Amino acid sequence: MRKRKTYNPKRKLCGRAQAMERRAALQALGVQPNYTGNPEHKRNPGDFGLQPPSAPRLGKTLCDDLQLDSRSEALRLLREGFHRGLFSVQERGGWPQNVWAVTDDGYPVEAQLDGNGSYHGYPMPEDDPLREFVLDRWNAQGEACR
Question: CA neighbours within 13 Å on the CB side: how many for 96?
Answer without folding.
Answer: 35
